[in-house]
Specification:
4-stranded antiparallel β-sheet; 14% strand; 414 residues
Length: 414
């Protein structure tokens, strides 16, 4: 069994490529439900966030192309130039670094751990995981928690939403007495609203396709819900618009923005689009008076926070290296578990068959005598298998493991 990762992230692909890889939860579920159509692709977990899309797979030795075929089918295209691949130990290390937020755009951000959990839970509930990925993801989630507990990497850290608000505050010389409009009412939008309030924003408007969700969020933050179709009309008196919807297409278009700018009579407006796929058509940024930033433009804010956490990141990597070594040692033996279980099952079937045969010839046995014979035959089976099992386990991770595995299968095959 091989471990493999195929994916791309903010380091290898700009947002215009990443948004093409953004996979909906429904598509992920459909893909995992059809996993058995790809030969040798035995287990899989798909992690898709605003900054990465990755498939974690446990495969048979002879199916190198299956992971790539599955990935291309899932995202509906082939963008090989932007992809990275990891195998074996490097695969484990990468996932642990992702869970610990060492591979995030924003070092120490907390949202990625819950995203890893959600991705794993989705795959597990569908039945797309087994012993290998269950073991790997349980440990990865624990590592993510340990890093946050044992280091200060998450101390005073920024998030995508807080970085967006910091960028707005920097460009607008502060946000006091400013008005803001948020498109979206999900978790990211709510965090953005909280950061806006902490920066002293005067009024926050909330627009969402489902007005009841906008009203619910507005009530929590002391803002005002606006109907989706009328949102840009309210933007006449707004200084900053932040978009964070899950829409698969642009929700703010150039012609709408042009009408808005006409009504604003030359007053500029500031857009920050933190959605992937993007909410704001890039052409909007070319309209006079409009300043448009997307999630990739947050790096300048992020950089100012990174240096303070670099030492903590080094401590986190030390924790991860210990964990990688431990789980790779465990994986040496996990690969033999199906074979050992198969051998035990075959031996147990033989024992039960022979015990049933002899019981028919000894009808006068007492219950106590039957129990004694039962226990004796179980001990015989265990003792017969003990040495072969020990040899098999001892060969794990050595040049002899394939020899002993093949020998076991040949010698005990019925």
């Amino acid at each position: 069994m091989h471990l493999k990762i195929l994916g791309l992230n903010y380091k290898t692909a700009p947002i215009e490529i990443r948004e093409k890889f953004s996979v909906t939860k429904e598509s992920i579920k459909r893909g995992l439900e059809n996993l058995d159509e790809y030969e040798g692709l035995n287990e899989a977990v798909i992690l898709s966030t605003c900054n990465r899309t990755e498939i974690y797979a446990a495969t048979s030795n002879s199916c190198e192309g299956s992971v790539k075929n599955f990935f291309n089918d899932l995202i509906g295209g082939n963008f090989e130039n932007f992809l990275y691949e990891y195998e074996g130990e490097n695969c484990v290390r990468h996932l642990f670094e992702v869970s610990a937020s060492l591979d995030s755009l924003i070092l120490g951000e907390g949202q990625i751990l819950s995203q890893v959990k959600d991705a794993y839970t989705t795959a597990k509930n569908i039945g797309a995981t087994g012993t290998i990925l269950n073991t790997l993801f349980h440990r990865a989630i624990a590592v993510g928690k340990n890093v946050r507990t044992e280091t200060k990497i998450a101390y005073n850290s920024v998030s995508v939403s807080s970085a967006a608000v910091e960028l707005a505050a920097e460009k607008l010389n502060g946000l006091k007495d400013k008005n803001a409009l948020i498109f979206g009412a999900g978790k990211m939008a709510q965090l953005t609203a909280q950061h806006l309030k902490s920066h002293g924003v005067k009024k926050i408007f909330v627009a969402n396709h489902h007005i009841e969700r906008a009203e619910e969020m507005a009530e929590k933050i002391g803002g005002e819900a606006v109907a989706w179709e009328n949102a840009l009309l309210r933007a006449v008196d707004v200084d900053i618009i932040i978009t964070s919807t899950g829409a698969p297409h642009y929700v703010i278009k150039p012609w709408q923005t042009q009408q808005l700018m006409t009504r604003r009579a030359g007053r500029g407006i500031f857009f920050i689009d933190i959605a992937v796929p993007r909410d704001v058509d890039p052409e909007v940024g070319k309209i006079g008076g409009v300043t448009l930033y997307n999630i990739d433009d947050l790096e300048s804010v992020v950089e100012s926070h990174v240096k303070a956490r670099q030492l903590e990141a080094e401590e986190a990597r030390k924790i991860i290296e210990v964990e990688v070594a431990a789980i790779m040692e465990r994986f040496k033996y996990l690969k033999f578990q199906p074979l050992m279980a198969d051998l035990s099952n075959r031996a147990e079937k033989i024992r039960e068959r022979e015990l049933k045969r002899i019981s028919g010839k000894l009808p006068n046995l007492t219950d106590e005598e039957r129990r004694a014979i039962e226990q004796m035959t179980k001990k015989i089976v265990r003792k017969l298998l003990r040495l072969p099992m020990m040899k098999l386990n001892a060969s794990a991770g050595t040049n002899e493991e394939n020899f002993y595995a093949a020998a076991m299968q040949a010698l005990f095959r019925e």
